[in-house]
Structure formats: C-alpha cells, structure tokens
C-alpha cells in the first residue's frame, strides 16, 4: 500500500491546475484513509494558534488533512504557526499548502521543500503553445487522443466570437 507524503506544496498561478492538484491529493488521502478529517485553513480569517489546535491529536484518533489555500495572502501569524508545525513531527497529519506566486510566505515554502514536501507545479497557461499542450493533456487525461489540428479548434479564435477562444462554454 502506498503512503501519502505528510507535506504537499501546490505552487503556481494557474487556478485550474491547482484545483485539480488539490482534488487529486484529497482523493489520494481519502483512498488511503476514508475517514480522514479535512480541515481548511482560511488565511483571511486565520486566528493565531488556530493551526496548533487543528494539528493537535484527536481524542478519537484518526488522520487529519489540513489544507491551507492562498499562502501568498496569509497573515504573518499563519506563517509563524506553519513554521512551528513544520519543525515538529507530523504524526497522522497531511499538510497541503497552496501558493500562487510572489515572495510572501517564502520561509514556509523553503521549509516545506527542505522537509522533502511533494511539490506540484501549476505554471501559468499563457502562450498559444501552453494552451495547445493543455488541451492535448485534457484529451489524454480523458483517455482520448486528439490531433494538433483538433486541439487548435479549442484554442483558436473563431470568426463568430472575435477574440474569444473556442473553448467550450458552460451555456
């Protein structure tokens, strides 16, 4: 049976890739322990010591999955508490930290990397080549193959919609 690394860093500005990475990590942890307790740490409402409470052992036992999104927007108190958590043992805890970009939270990022966190990169999809690669990867993820021309249909502007791409809409 595989084991979940206690630390996962999801890094990069591309939201769709970060959301998929988080979903994949959550699914992996739930596969290993269906009764895992998921705890979301919200930086905008974080109170000092909150992480200490969440990471404390439960009277009932069980694994905890602590997800900290938007580390790049977190208050200094969260950085301090994350660094303290990373300095100790992570018994029955999986910690997932998401960081879009920028220098805020760099000490936490460095500490996670030093602690051998699994790093999942979510680079920005900017260029036409990036978009084509993303669409091709989506087809592969769904067990399908698509020619480069077919992928181009999804990313190229259409005469009908001006500068908009032909990515399927939810309408």
Biggest sheet architecture: 5 strands, parallel
Rg of Cα set: 19 Å
In which range does the helix fraction lie? Answer: 25-40%
Q: Main sheet: which strands, in order across?
A: 2-3-4-1-5
Structural class: alpha/beta
Query: What is the overall number of helices?
Result: 6
Round the mean pLDDT to the nearest integer and report it. 87
> How many DSSP E strands?
5
Unreliable segments of 5+ consecutive residues: none
Order of helices and strands: EHEHEHEHEHH
Indicate the overall shape. elongated
- Quote the distance from N terminus to C terminus: 42 Å
- How much strand content do the residues show? 15-25%
Notable characteristics:
5 strands, 39% helix, five-stranded parallel β-sheet
Task: Write up what this structure looks like.
The chain is of the alpha/beta class. It has 6 helices and 5 strands; from the N terminus they run E-H-E-H-E-H-E-H-E-H-H. The chain has helices spanning 15-32, 50-55, 76-87, 106-114, 128-141, 148-155, and strands spanning 7-11, 37-41, 64-68, 93-99, 118-121. Strands 2-3-4-1-5 form a 5-stranded parallel β-sheet, with helices on both faces. Helix 3 links the parallel strand 3 and strand 4. Helix 3 packs parallel to helix 4. The longest helix has 18 residues, at 15-32. The mean pLDDT is 87.
